[in-house]
């Protein structure tokens, strides 16, 4: 009995000692990701961010790896909260050509990259020596603010200068533009260039004599282009009014932008006009929100090109719906948490065609704490009446389905089974900047003849089915 008791005590002591005995600590495994700045993140920045986040831009720069790395947690938070890039339309309601919203895939890229300590590339270390001939230039996000997206303007007009005081809060200034037209012209497109991108947030353009709204500018959508066959009439002697929303910077700025006009060769096939719905307060006001609404019944077939709500303080949401004669309701726009300093139009990817008898409605909700909006809050639609343009459209040169670009670079790895090459290459003009990227290869390419370290030249083929390499030539074998 005594021997058994001693055995139990010894076993318990050994067990306790094992638990309490100091053992080596193993740290948590580091989170890893395949998302890289030089590949996925730089594309997100190019497509959504650097039009504002650049040197001499509206916000702190995010063009280099170092700048993005230092701001990665803020980028993560803004992406998850969907505050940046600024876009208030809720996905699933309307398809917009000028959408600047991050896709869920892009949000996942930003979050994964930030939480994995912001890898730059595949682990290669830059020597920092600018003259090293074999070192490719550092990958950076890029925005060409001087490029005219619609091509050389038919008429380039400088605008009058405005002085913006230092640290001035948001203010709107009107500028009158005189095209000096001696005959009627048909405007098919408009593009605006700010004189100083640090202070310009948004611009809206209209014809003074007719009140016709002809377009708006935002940092991520610097032009307006009507569908083929459509144009807005600019009467002889008419003027364009530009309402510019400014925000001050650290020092006073004299800002003078310019606008490019693009004219059609013939009159528009349909008359493009503006339709305004003035949302007014419903009585009695809600105890939680203040609701404004307006409805109109279409007297004929109508096609909506775009719409632009007037944004006022306290606006929580805007909903635009179309209830057809058959009772079916279509939500054209649902926008919420709309930032006051980022007004934007919503330009449909394709005109929305509505039948005669459709009820077009606008519903707006304002926060309870907000003072009642002054009078009505208008939503302006750009429309044309009649049947949708299809067969009447003139023949225009379409963007080719297949595009080719030239690539020169070094093969980093070969995956023959998957039919892919990892290539470190320089700039591909018209397509992308320098980076290390995995490419699919054409079926005719024999990957057994290519090895890591080989320097190659190739065609980059971009089509509706994806991107791949074709006509690969090895110009220097790996040593």
How would you sum up this structure, described in words?
There is one protein chain. This protein is mainly beta and 479 residues long. The protein folds into four domains: 31-143, no CATH class; 155-263, Jelly Rolls, CATH 2.60.120.230; 272-385, Jelly Rolls (Sandwich), CATH 2.60.120; 403-476, Copper binding periplasmic protein CusF (OB fold (Dihydrolipoamide Acetyltransferase, E2P)), CATH 2.40.50. It is 12% helix and 37% strand. It has five helices and 24 strands. It has helices at 2-20, 37-48, 65-70, 72-80, 104-115, and strands spanning 155-158, 162-164, 171-177, 185-193, 200-207, 213-217, 223-225, 232-234, 240-246, 253-255, 258-263, 272-281, 289-297, 302-309, 315-323, 329-336, 346-354, 359-367, 377-385, 403-415, 420-425, 435-441, 455-463, 466-476. The strands form five sheets. It has an eight-stranded antiparallel β-sheet, with no helix packed on it. Strands 1, 4, 7, 8 and 11 form a five-stranded antiparallel β-sheet that branches. A hairpin with a 5-residue loop joins strand 15 and strand 16. The radius of gyration is 29 Å and the shape is globular.
Structure, briefly:
The chain is mostly beta strands and 479 residues long.
Rg, Cα atoms, Å: 29 Å
Please summarize the sheet with the most strands: 8 strands, antiparallel
* Separation of the first and last Cα atoms: 79 Å
Number of helices: 5
């Amino acid at each position: 009995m005594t021997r058994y008791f001693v055995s139990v005590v010894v076993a318990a002591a050994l067990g306790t000692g094992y638990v309490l005995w100091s053992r080596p600590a193993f740290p948590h495994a580091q989170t890893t990701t395949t998302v890289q700045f030089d590949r996925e993140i730089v594309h997100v920045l190019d497509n959504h961010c650097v039009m504002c986040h650049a040197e001499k831009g509206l916000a702190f720069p995010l063009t280099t790896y170092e700048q993005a790395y230092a701001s990665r947690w803020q980028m993560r938070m803004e992406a998850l909260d969907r505050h940046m890039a600024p876009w208030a339309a809720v996905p699933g309601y309307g398809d917009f050509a000028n959408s600047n919203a991050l896709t869920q895939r892009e949000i996942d890229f930003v979050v994964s990259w930030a939480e994995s300590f912001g890898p730059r590339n595949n682990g290669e270390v830059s020597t920092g020596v600018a003259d090293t001939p074999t070192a490719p230039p550092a990958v950076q996000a890029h925005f060409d603010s001087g490029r005219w997206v619609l091509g050389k303007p038919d008429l380039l007009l400088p605008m009058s200068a405005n002085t913006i005081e230092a640290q001035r809060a948001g203010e709107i200034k009107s500028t009158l533009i005189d095209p000096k037209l001696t005959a009627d012209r048909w405007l098919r497109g408009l593009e605006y260039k700010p004189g100083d991108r640090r202070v310009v947030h948004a611009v809206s353009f209209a014809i003074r004599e007719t009140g016709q709204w002809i377009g708006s500018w935002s940092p991520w959508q610097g032009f307006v282009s009507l569908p083929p066959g459509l144009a807005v009439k600019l009467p002889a002697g008419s003027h364009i009014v530009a309402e510019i929303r400014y925000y001050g910077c650290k020092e006073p700025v004299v800002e003078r932008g310019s606008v490019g006009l693009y004219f059609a060769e013939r009159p528009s096939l349909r008359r493009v006009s503006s339709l305004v719905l003035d949302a007014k307060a419903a009585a009695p006001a809600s105890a939680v929100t203040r609701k404004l609404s307006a409805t109109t019944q279409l007297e004929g077939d109508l096609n909506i090109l775009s719409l632009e709500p007037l944004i006022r303080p306290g606006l929580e949401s805007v909903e635009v719906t179309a209830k057809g004669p058959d009772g079916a309701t279509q939500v054209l726009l649902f926008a919420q948490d709309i930032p006051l300093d980022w007004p934007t139009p919503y330009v449909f990817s394709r005109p929305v065609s509505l039948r005669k008898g459709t009820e077009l409605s606008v519903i707006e909700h304002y926060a309870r704490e907000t003072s009642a909006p002054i009078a009505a809050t208008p939503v302006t639609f750009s429309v044309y009446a009649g049947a949708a343009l299809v067969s009447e459209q003139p023949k225009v040169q379409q963007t080719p389905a297949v595009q080719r670009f030239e690539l020169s670079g070094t093969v980093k790895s070969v995956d023959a089974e998957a039919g892919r090459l990892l290539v470190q290459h320089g700039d591909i003009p018209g397509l992308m900047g320098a980076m290390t990227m995995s490419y699919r290869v054409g079926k005719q390419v024999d990957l057994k003849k290519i090895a890591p370290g080989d320097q190659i030249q190739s065609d980059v083929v971009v089509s509706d089915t994806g991107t791949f390499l074709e006509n690969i030539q090895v110009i220097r074998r790996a040593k």
